[in-house]
C-alpha cells in the first residue's frame, strides 16, 4: 500500500489505517529527500523584505560616514584657528558640541552595522535551514525583530545628532 502516494498502512486495532509521511520522516529515510523545493521557494519569497532592509542599512551607513567625515573636518578646521585670532577664536567653543555629535554618530553607526549583520545572518541561516528542509519562519522572525530594534536605536541616535546639529554654530566658517 505504500506506493507513490506516500501513504503507509498503520494497524489500529483490527483496521488498517493509511497515514501520510511527514517531511521529517522523508528526511530520515533518504538524504536525497532532504531538499524541499517548496520550503526553499518560501524562503526566497520571505527574503525580499530583509534584502531591501539590508540595502537600506548600507545606504544609511554611507550617510553616517559622510556626516562623521564632515564633523571631523570641521573639528580640524577649528583646531587650525590661531589663539591670537580674536575675530574667530570664539568658534573653537563649538568643538565640544561637535565631539558629542561624533559620539552619537559612532553609536548610531555601531547599531546600524550590528543590525546589518543580524539581517545578513537572518538571510544566511534562513537559506541553510530551508535547504535542509526545516521551517525557518520562527527564527527568521526573531532575527528580523532584533535587527529592527537595533535599527530603531540607531535612528534614535541619528535623530539626537540631527537635533544637536541644528544650531547657529554650523552656519559660521
Describe this protein's structure:
With 173 residues, this protein is mainly alpha-helical. It is 66% helix and 7% strand. The chain contains five helices and two strands; from the N terminus they run E-E-H-H-H-H-H. Helix 2 (37-46) packs antiparallel against helix 4 and helix 3 runs antiparallel to helix 4 (95-131). The longest helix has 37 residues, at 95-131. The chain is rod-shaped and about 75 Å long. Residues 12-17 have low confidence and may be disordered.
In short:
The chain has 173 residues and is mainly alpha-helical. It has helices at residues 23-29, 37-46, 48-79, 95-131, 137-165, and strands at 7-12, 15-20.
Based on the model shown, name its key terms.
173 residues, mainly alpha, two-stranded antiparallel ribbon, 2 strands, rod-shaped
Order of helices and strands: EEHHHHH
* Uncertain parts: 12-17
Number of strands: 2
Largest sheet entry: 2 strands, antiparallel
* Overall domain count: 2
Radius of gyration: 28 Å
End-to-end Cα distance, whole Å, is 86 Å
Strands ordered across the widest β-sheet: 1-2
Helix segment tally: 5
| Approximate helicity band | 55-70%
Q: Average pLDDT, to the nearest integer?
A: 81
Secondary structure topology:
Layout (H helix, E strand, L loop, with lengths): L6 E6 L2 E6 L2 H7 L7 H10 L1 H32 L15 H37 L5 H29 L8
Antiparallel strand pairs: 1-2
Helix pairs in contact: 2-4, 3-4, 4-5
Amino acid at each position: 500500500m505504500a506506493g507513490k502516494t506516500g501513504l503507509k498502512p498503520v494497524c489500529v486495532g483490527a483496521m488498517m489505517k493509511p497515514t501520510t509521511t511527514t517531511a521529517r520522516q522523508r528526511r530520515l529515510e533518504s538524504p536525497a529527500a532532504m531538499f524541499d523545493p517548496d520550503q526553499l521557494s518560501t524562503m526566497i519569497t520571505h527574503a525580499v523584505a530583509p534584502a531591501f532592509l539590508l540595502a537600506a542599512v548600507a545606504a544609511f551607513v554611507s550617510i553616517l560616514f559622510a556626516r562623521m567625515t564632515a564633523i571631523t573636518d570641521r573639528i580640524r578646521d577649528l583646531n587650525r584657528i590661531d589663539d591670537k585670532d580674536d575675530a574667530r577664536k570664539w568658534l573653537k567653543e563649538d568643538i565640544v558640541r561637535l565631539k558629542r555629535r561624533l559620539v552619537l554618530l559612532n553609536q548610531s553607526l555601531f547599531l546600524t552595522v550590528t543590525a546589518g549583520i543580524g539581517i545578513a545572518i537572518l538571510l544566511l541561516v534562513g537559506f541553510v535551514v530551508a535547504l535542509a528542509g526545516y521551517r525557518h519562519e520562527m527564527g527568521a522572525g526573531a532575527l528580523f525583530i532584533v535587527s529592527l530594534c537595533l535599527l530603531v536605536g540607531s535612528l534614535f541616535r541619528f535623530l539626537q545628532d540631527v537635533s544637536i546639529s541644528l544650531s547657529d554654530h554650523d552656519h559660521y566658517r
